[in-house]
Amino acid sequence: MKHNAYRSIIIILLCQLLSVAALFDAKHNTTTTREPPKQLESSVGRIVGGFEAHIHQIPYQVSIQQEGVHRCGGAIYSATIIVSAAHCFELWDMPELFAVRAGSSEHERGGVYLPVRRIFVHAQFQPANGVGDDIAVVAVTYPLPFSINIQPIPLASSADMSDAYRSVYFVSGWGSLAEGSRLRSPRLRFVTVKQFEQRACKAAYSRTVHITEGMLCAGALGGGRDSCQGDSGGPLVGYAHGRFVLVGVVSFGIGCGRPGLPGIYTRVAEYKDWIELAAKQI
């Protein structure tokens, strides 16, 4: 795996954004909490408050397309395997409807466009609520041609998480720029977020959903920075033991960037063994 090609670029970019992120937090600390929605916004979605990025800065990011239209994000695990969210694939048994675009900053053009061969959704995932075990593995028909714009990212292990917890995370995608908008960003964007303590996250979502150990909560305490509709399945990345690792997969949340309500991600370390086994079987 060639991480040096983009490691220095991302470190510099993150350092530049930390000061901006602090100002952003201060601005949104005065935002009032909105009325809670009647249901979780987990359908095709869950970047708000972010910045444009070039694919060579985030070369593991892909766009998962359904019938030629961007539906979700994903992260490159190997030359033929993509990690994404289970709720992106109601039609998991019809892989011919899906394709993956990699190596492009735009989801509509550029890079390489490969058909999907097979989709493997976690057996415990329940489409009715689209919350728990929200993880899927996608196999493309032909190997991805690795380059500066197309690179895999390692999965976070349990040992990585204590180190990664102290780092700034960042999430990327082509999703909506604001809550309630159906417009997707034409260009790749990303935003920095911090992991929420699990107990605080459980309290924030106590009236809507049970937060499990297979979930990771990340956002900004004052709101304003989050993933949003169209970012589902995309990567949440942290820095651990001298390398960038995939710590989460965009899953669900209440609205986008609301104060006190972080985005919920599938915790990759909890599903590392499952992902590795599925990748071998698929």
For the biggest sheet, the summary is: 6 strands, antiparallel, barrel
Approximately how much beta-strand content do the residues carry?
A: 25-35%
Helical run tally:
4
Level-1 CATH class name of the largest domain: Mainly Beta
At CATH's second level, what is the architecture of the largest domain? Beta Barrel
Distance between the termini: 21 Å
- Oligomeric status of the shown chains? single chain
Instruction: Compute the average pLDDT.
Output: 82
If you had to describe this structure to a student in words, what would you say it looks like?
With 282 residues, the chain is an alpha+beta fold. It folds into two domains: 4-54 and 153-269, Thrombin, subunit H, CATH 2.40.10; 60-152 and 272-281, Trypsin-like serine proteases (Thrombin, subunit H). The chain is 17% helix and 28% strand. It contains four helices and 13 strands. The strands form two sheets. It has a six-stranded antiparallel barrel with strand order 8-9-10-13-12-11. Strands 2-3-4-7-6-5 form a six-stranded antiparallel barrel. β11 and β12 (243-252) form a beta hairpin. Mean pLDDT is 82; it is low at 1-46.
